[in-house]
């Protein structure tokens, strides 16, 4: 089963998959993305994906 969430504040798309006994999330904003964010609950997987995406965006911003 696939769950899709769209953030209203930021143009970020989060896709959550039911994976074995947990969930796997992917998040992207159109320019970069993260995947393989595994957790036991949908909320934890979504939070992990958003955190990793924000860290990646911050890292890319500081490298410019």
Report on this structure:
The N and C termini lie far apart (38 Å). Strands 1-2-3-4 form a four-stranded antiparallel sheet, with helices on one face. The chain is globular, with a radius of gyration of 12 Å. The protein has one helix at 42-63, and strands at 2-6, 13-19, 22-28, 33-39. It is 34% helix and 41% strand. It is of the alpha+beta class and 64 residues long. It contains one helix and four strands; from the N terminus they run ββββα.
Q: Which outline best applies?
A: globular
Write down the Rg. Answer: 12 Å
Q: Please report the total strand number as a whole number.
A: 4
* Overall pLDDT level: 87
- Largest sheet: spatial strand order: 1-2-3-4
Report how far the terminal alpha carbons are from each other: 38 Å
Q: Write down the secondary-structure element order.
A: EEEEH
- Structural class based on helices, strands and sheet pairing: alpha+beta
Largest sheet geometry: 4 strands, antiparallel
């Amino acid at each position: 089963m696939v769950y899709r969430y769209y953030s209203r504040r930021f143009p970020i798309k989060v896709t959550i998959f039911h994976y074995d006994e947990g969930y796997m999330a992917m998040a992207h904003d159109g320019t970069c993305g993260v995947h393989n964010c595994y957790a036991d609950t949908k909320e934890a997987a979504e939070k992990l994906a958003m955190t990793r995406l924000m860290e990646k965006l911050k890292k890319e911003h500081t490298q410019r």
